[in-house]
Design a protein that fits this description.
The structure holds two protein chains of two kinds. By secondary structure, chain A is mainly alpha-helical. Chain A is built from 14 helices and two strands. Helix content of chain A is 77%, strand content 1%. Classes of the chains: A mainly alpha, B mainly alpha.
Chain lengths: 332, 287
């Protein structure tokens, strides 16, 4: 498939996302889509670390919650302006991520996964038990909606949808630039072989930490959006169940691919919506799905598409080769 | 002083359970180098099977445990066959994700079959004893004794029987084990069965003093991970010692520091240990 064609597909989907609210006219669908976009941003963060750098962090919901609670606490308890709090939240998350990263990245593989799982659990317990700050299980209420920027207000579902969409597109663009830069290639080098990367003179510690901090930054950003969109926070958003949800979105869409996070997240969120009657039992389907995907298609939907593209271009090349050969024969 | 002895006794009870769960986890890790995140769900299923046998089928506590051991053991073997075996040659990250998939499935399944409610398991050993100023139920004493019996049996199995020794051989040196003709598939299945059985025993023993619910495995499995990291991944004595150590630390911490935060103790312990020694205390070196 030519590169130009891919570009058109991307533009098609962006246009589709922009006109989506006009097609449905249904506030509920817009609401679901906005949530899916918010989760996607968090999944992009996870993808950078787990997909491109090869470090499976199981504390991601914790960082999402830190971003969300940062906005919640700054606006509700300190009564800070919304946008100041909104910008501070991902930065706070990234700073906390930096310190956790310094320590956790000393560990590798299983140790890293278990370590981050425990870090995530500690974040959850702190939010749950520290009543005086976070309101614990009662939940944090009264978070304001995004404040107006000049004449633009963000009180209707439609305007919030476009706000989230704009931020999501920006995030995808940033991720695209990162993974196609030297930094991104360094991440991939670390994923493929850390000792080799080290022997090539790459500072693995520095780059892993950068990936970790960026990953937590995006998680914090998604959390901040979530807080201002749902406007109610409970400790459950830090639970491991959310981490596993994010991981599932990533695996279904395609780990280590650019469009995997958005594809997986939107798909699963929509399927979950249509399986509402299953409620708590949806994992009866998604649990085995996750396992089966990992066994048969470890790179998810985008991975399958990618493989198919490679195969079809190979076929084409073979055909062309045959053609030119037969032409040569004719000439001869 | 009496409080201290009482707490030490409680620590011994919790520690016994932790040790049993951690033993299963460490055995599986020793053979396949998989951190089996689904082990906590296996533990939970074990609790439910025993509960169902006792309340719905109405058989004796011990027979229920025996049934639970077999059902959960077979479930554990199935998991190895269907999931971990096909994944044996992929990158490590995939094993972890697959295990998480199983975990999510089993929890949803338990919720579907038994509901999300907290269930109480009645034990025939609810009598309260009072010895040297320490009050305890017979069930707690039973946990301690049963755990020790199980550990001794496991030790004899691994050291004295031929098939037990194949497990040890394979965890010590995979290639060497293949060279002397040990069947890797059989050993893997056997190990998963033993791990499942240990989890079922632990869950059945602890259920009468705790509660049975779909999420009962969460904390236990996380703590079991902490234990095997403290004791060295794949080390059997490490899992036993680590389990008791954590049990004591928790029950004493809950009394003298804060009951609210007692669950955090294990994780803080882990974070401190991994901060100082990123490969665990008794790391056996790279595999």
């Amino acid at each position: 498939m030519p590169k130009k064609f891919e570009k058109y597909i991307v533009i098609f989907f962006i246009v589709l996302a922009i006109i989506f609210p006009l097609i449905t006219q249904n506030d509920y669908y817009i609401h679901i889509m906005t949530l899916a976009f918010i989760w996607s941003i968090a999944v992009y963060g996870l993808n950078l670390l787990a997909g491109y750098t090869g470090y499976l962090s199981l504390a991601h919901a914790g960082f999402f919650a830190i971003g969300a609670y940062a906005v919640g606490l700054l606006t509700v308890k300190i009564e800070m302006g919304f946008w100041v709090a909104f910008i501070l939240a991902p930065i706070i998350t990234a700073v906390i991520g930096f310190f956790i990263g310094i320590i956790s990245l000393r560990t590798k593989e299983h140790y890293f996964a278990i370590y981050t799982l425990c870090v995530g659990y500690v974040i959850y317990l702190i939010i749950d038990k520290w009543d005086s700050l976070t309101e614990g299980v009662r939940g944090l209420m009264g978070i304001p909606a995004p404040a107006n920027i000049g004449p633009i207000s963000f009180t209707t579902p439609l305007s919030q949808y476009y706000l989230v969409l704009a931020i999501l597109l920006l995030v995808i663009f940033i991720i695209y630039r990162i993974i196609n830069s030297l930094v991104g290639r360094t991440f991939i080098a670390i994923r493929n072989s850390e000792p080799l990367a080290l022997s090539l003179g790459i500072s693995t510690i520095k780059n892993k930490l950068l990936s970790f901090v960026l990953s937590t930054f995006f998680a914090g950003l998604a959390g901040a959006l979530y807080a201002s969109f749902v406007r109610f926070l409970g400790p459950d958003i830090a639970s491991t169940a959310i981490t596993f949800d994010l991981l599932m979105y990533l695996i279904v869409g395609g780990i280590g691919t650019l469009f995997g996070p958005i594809v997986g997240t939107t798909l699963i969120v929509w399927i979950s919506q249509n399986l509402q009657f299953l409620q708590d039992y949806r994992m009866l389907i998604f649990g085995p799905l996750l396992t089966i995907l990992i066994i048969f298609a470890p790179r998810g939907i985008m991975g399958i598409i990618g493989d198919w593209k490679v195969k079809s271009s190979e076929k084409k090349r073979n055909k062309e080769a045959q053609k030119s050969q037969s032409e040569l024969k004719k000439e001869a | 002083m009496e409080i201290l002895i009482q707490q030490l006794f409680n620590g011994l009870t919790i520690g016994s359970i932790y040790s049993l769960v951690a033993l299963g986890l460490t055995l599986v890790y020793g053979i396949l180098h998989i951190p089996n995140f689904a082990h906590g769900a296996i533990y939970m299923i074990g609790g439910y099977i025993t509960l169902t046998m006792m309340t719905y089928v109405g058989v004796n506590y011990w027979i229920s445990i025996a049934v639970s051991i077999i059902v959960v053991g077979v479930l554990s073997v199935l998991m190895e066959r269907l999931v971990f075996h096909p994944l044996r040659n992929t990158i490590i990250i995939n094993n972890k994700i697959a295990a998480i998939g199983i975990l999510l499935f089993l929890e949803a399944l338990a919720q579907l079959i038994w509901g999300a409610d907290f269930r109480q398991m009645s034990s025939p050993y609810n009598q309260v004893l009072n010895l040297f100023g320490v009050t305890f139920t017979v069930q707690r004493l039973l946990i301690i004794v049963a755990a020790i019996v199980v550990m001794v049996l496991l030790y004899l199995f691994l050291k004295k029987t031929f098939i037990g020794r194949t497990i040890i051989a394979m965890s010590q040196n995979r290639e060497g084990a293949f060279l002397v003709g040990i069947n890797a598939n059989k050993v893997a299945m056997l190990t998963f069965f033993v791990a499942g059985a240990l989890a079922a025993i632990a869950a059945s023993l602890t259920s009468p003093i705790n509660l049975v619910f779909p999420g009962m495995g969460h904390l236990v499995i996380l703590k079991a991970f902490v234990i095997i990291i403290i004791g060295g991944m794949g080390s059997i004595p490490g899992a036993i010692l680590g389990g008791y150590l954590l049990g004591f630390t928790e029950s004493i911490g809950a009394t003298y520091i804060s009951g609210d935060y007692k669950d955090i103790i294990a994780f803080i312990l882990l974070i401190i240990i991994l901060t100082i020694k990123p490969n665990g205390i008794f790391a056996k070196g790279e595999h």
